[in-house]
Amino acid sequence: MPRKVVFIADADSWSGEGLIARFSAGGSDLILNSSQEVKEWEDVILFCRAAGSKVLITHADLCSSHDLTTMLDQAEKLLGPVDVMIHNCSLIRPARVESCVESEFVEIMQRNAKSAFFCTQTFGRRMTDRGSGSMIFVSSIHNEKPTGMSFAYSASQGAVKMLAHEAALFLGRAGIRVNVIEMGPVEGSDVSFQSDITGLYNDYRYKIPGTKLGTANDLADLAYFLAGEESGYLNGADIRLDGGFLLHYMDHRMNKPTEGETRSQ
């Protein structure tokens, strides 16, 4: 893939580590938006530079058009215009329909969905001026499938999905591709989505036909593909990255190890 400038909206997240490693290995220059101090990124910066990548740590408020614009002005002077925008903000917090208070709902929607809107608008304008670019939204299988523990999370992911569809329709006319990765189970998802009204994540590893959970590297590899020319005809796509998890429908037929059997994970 030709050298690109890649913006990662939440470099501090679990997905950020995989994205940073994959894109730096591919020779991209990185803008990493973070809530941490620059000194906490020293090891990552050294790693990326060793791979030949330039790195800029930013602290933009993703829900502020002014903040994003100011950040991009500075970043473009140092690295050039952004070719790939990856929005991977994904705050998961219990928020039941019957008990969620307004402040919890607003915080989840702002972190996940409002930030996606402002990133789409701000980056979209600049990409439109250049007539090229790629936007990748890291969403979740819960943009349609209820969690049973956080309607606000599901609602935010559904909003991101439809935002991406609308953006693909409009920005696609200017040569910009907009696609969604619907991430499925990873290590710890049974804790993150613990619910007392659904058993979706009970023995969740064995509800995946191959019994293998997804990783940040799996996500990063797909994002790297979506950012490249090989996926040039993909626009407005929702790619489910869940190992077949949502295809499961009979718990008594789970692919669980038999007694005494071990299985490498």
From TrEMBL:
Q: Which residues form the signal peptide?
A: none
The UniProt keyword set, sorted, is: Oxidoreductase
Q: Which domain of life is it from?
A: Bacteria
Which Pfam families did the record assign? adh_short_C2 (PF13561)
Question: Family, per the entry?
Answer: Belongs to the short-chain dehydrogenases/reductases (SDR) family.
What name is this protein filed under?
SDR family oxidoreductase
Species annotation:
Paenibacillus terricola
